[in-house]
Design goal:
The chain is mainly α. The protein is built from 20 helices and no strands. The radius of gyration is 22 Å and the shape is globular.
Amino acid sequence: MSATTVPGTRAGTREWLGLAVLLLPTVLLFLAMTVLFLATPQIAADLGPSSGQLLWINDVYGLVMAGLLVAMGTVGDRVGRRRVLMFGAVAFGAASVAAAFAPDAGWLIATRAVMGVGAAAVMPSTLSLISNMFQNDRQRATAIGLWAASVSVGVAIGPLVGGLLLESFWWGAALLIGVPVMALVLVAAPLLVPEYKAPAAGSLDVPSVLLSMASLLPIVYGIKEFAKHGLNATAIVTALVGLVFSVVFVRRQLRLATPLLDVRLFADRTFSGALGVFLFSAIALGGVYLLFTQYLQLVAGQSPLESGLWILPAALALIAVSMISPKVAQRVRPAYVVAVGAVFSVAGYLVLTQVDAGLPLLITGFYLLYPGIAPTMALTTNLVIGAAPPEKAGAASAVNTTASDLGVSLGIAILGSLGAAIYRAQMPDDVPGTAADTLPGALAAAETLPDAQAATLVDQARDAFTDGLNVAAGGAAALAVLAAVLAFTLLRRVPAAGAAGAAGAAEASGAPAATGREEGELVGA
């Protein structure tokens, strides 16, 4: 049965405790997107993956999660949000154990994909259940604000947690942290989180689910193939296949009475503008973040814990700016707040294009760019949901979360592949195959060579990797500039008051302002 609540009723102790239960897996799921960044060198040494496999290990989790979010939201409407939450917790926990003890790269990629399935079930359930549990407008705003902050916390502390664990344990320990969290969810959610089913929910359109996956995965594979082997037939054909499926997917959604994704939402200026700003910002950060953490360990020679400690000040700044930005947006138009943050990110990326040797420029650039994305992370959810009609707020929330995960994953795929391609192009033709493929491969090959040859190979490999970081950072800077321009041009009509609710966003997009939320409506479907 669906839980029933009276609109406007203030939440009590049980609801706030239930919120704490829902925030824990939210932190964990976004932590899981970055926790393996610092473990990449250890995974490379232990499992010996190719450069393509190494990228898949990091980004398959986010890709699968993003591809299934909207579908899992629809399943939750039909069978119950808490039930889907529980399923996701079991899947994520079990896959985490299997991934931690993976015997080879293929097994790790497969289990990380299953973790993505579990995450896709958990993430929309948490936000939609929060919306149902908190009927009072002020309390709901506070609860959703805490949910958004927990996303920032997960992204920020992932490298530090990974560094602490890698200092004392093997890389698999970074994956096992999800097991006790999901176990707690399985025990506490039935006691503190009410079940809920949306009335008159549409049925799940399985062909749409398959089409959404068939659209995304071939495009990303084509990008990876291009980075590894150049513009060959495989890269071109797979990317075109993905684009064809994307067209079929959109056409099907326009025909369905209850589509998996209502693509008409993108016609709204505020909705599409806020989503585009966040997507471009996430792509820029995702790829550079991976290269940055690898540089700390493989070029600068920092231990995993030392790397995590270098990241900690920027992570704290990210959290602080995420908490402050909504307050600033009450007085300043959110477009300006987001654009100023993007300008800081651009400055940071440009500093990274000048990194040559040592840490000062690297750390300076990262300390500029990382907090710069915080206003986008903090304000996008309210802008996207506020721009959609009340009856479509759930779909809007799911699209926002999908953009977050997809952006980071595409950043790893695009900018990570670009960095890898530059590395291979800069390496001499006479180096061993593994050394010409990845920096970890070069470091491993150097251990088998005489000292003089080893030192030469290591220097060549580190210089080539640094060149790859420089070029990738330049690409990220261009994306951040585009995000700033989009924010300034598409969102400038949203007034300051619109950052906190639907009225301003609806006014800016020409739609009637929502006067309230219908009983039974979900956020995060």
